[in-house]
Amino acid sequence: MHQLDSKAHEALATLAHCSLTCHSMALVHCLELGGEHARPQHIRLLLDCAAVCATTAELLAHKSQFHTQMAALCVGICETCGENCEKLGQMEDCVSVCRRCAEHCREISRSGHAAALNQGATHAPSS
Amino acid sequence: MHQLDSKAHEALATLAHCSLTCHSMALVHCLELGGEHARPQHIRLLLDCAAVCATTAELLAHKSQFHTQMAALCVGICETCGENCEKLGQMEDCVSVCRRCAEHCREISRSGHAAALNQGATHAPSS
Amino acid sequence: MHQLDSKAHEALATLAHCSLTCHSMALVHCLELGGEHARPQHIRLLLDCAAVCATTAELLAHKSQFHTQMAALCVGICETCGENCEKLGQMEDCVSVCRRCAEHCREISRSGHAAALNQGATHAPSS
Amino acid sequence: MHQLDSKAHEALATLAHCSLTCHSMALVHCLELGGEHARPQHIRLLLDCAAVCATTAELLAHKSQFHTQMAALCVGICETCGENCEKLGQMEDCVSVCRRCAEHCREISRSGHAAALNQGATHAPSS
């Protein structure tokens, strides 16, 4: 991935880590703890975050013309997930990675960072 | 999936079909045709559409609290993909399924259709 | 997807339907029923089936040289999922689609069906 | 993901990195280089590797009862991808990460490493 700058690499690694952390916490930690941790809406929120982070990473990795819009959606989901995990407690791994991920995605969504910079006119939508 | 109404079922089937059609057309039809069909930005657009439709279907299938936002993003991607495929030609399968998919997603994004109706207060975010 | 024969189309539709059914049943039906249905290993098995069916569909849709191996793995997972769902009860949608999906995948894994037939020497691994 | 040991964490990070590297190289580097790099079977092989690594990571992250079988399939795909990329040249990032990923997956497939160790009898298939 030598064509992505170091900021984009960091974002990709964080997105991938956030996706797998939320997935693992939902299906191992939370389901086994039970109680509030195993409530349907908590498990679904974690899996939303896992799925959307994975797709955002994919779009960013191939410099999709939609990566800033996808990153903007990812900000909201990571923030909601991080906040819910913090309120619930015993979810420290998710809280910290969701926050870092939201920050990366916010920066990407604002600046059209990384892909857009490298991409230039040649990859712009053909409109 | 008996808890989803028939509109949601139809949307899920269309999203899945759109995802696999764009994926297949990109990696078999277009790459083998070569020329304009194999241009990086065309292949990437088809794979954006494939990835985002698959994730939208997943969120809709589990009645995610974010499914309307995801569907709204999916509208724009399906429309862009359908339009580009139409301009290029020899992409009829994509053109028709992308349009149907954009319509389903537009309806979902407007009405909070399906999931929201069934979901009610019990699945609302815990805020 | 006009380059895939009708058998492959049917398999793709079944794989996509199986994936979304298992996903939806796990995260809506089972988590809300609670009890045995919400046991971690049952939820994880349904999500295994959802993930592996989706990936098998993707490989089949682009005529991957690995699609028969992937389909063979998918047979075992669909069968295990279908059997577990049948023992548990109240999982009729999963039982029937997992069985049909296992049959499609078994046929694909045996015959190198669809992709291999169309693929011929030109797409064979470059060895 | 505090319930996975450090070996499993390393494997997850490598699988995620391999998936995004192959995805990015296929859709940016190779399609833009053109020629042999943009041949359909090369692009498809890279995207096979991307998809199967992502699914293997997911199954490993939630300690799926099928994670060793999935890892075994992933070994073969990573090795094939790494070898093809080496023959082709100008694919150094893929060559190195595919090799490391194949090693991690081989170890997992042999030992039932990580998940199986932590998982014990309580999560075994209910058969």
From TrEMBL, chains A, B, C, D:
Gene3D superfamilies: 1.20.1270.360
Pfam families linked: Csp (PF03860)
Classification via CDD domains: DUF326
InterPro entries: Csp_YhjQ, YHJQ-like
Superkingdom of this protein's organism: Bacteria
PANTHER family given in the database record: CYTOPLASMIC PROTEIN (PTHR37310:SF1), CYTOPLASMIC PROTEIN-RELATED (PTHR37310)
Protein's UniProt name: Ferredoxin
The species this protein was found in: Rhizomicrobium palustre
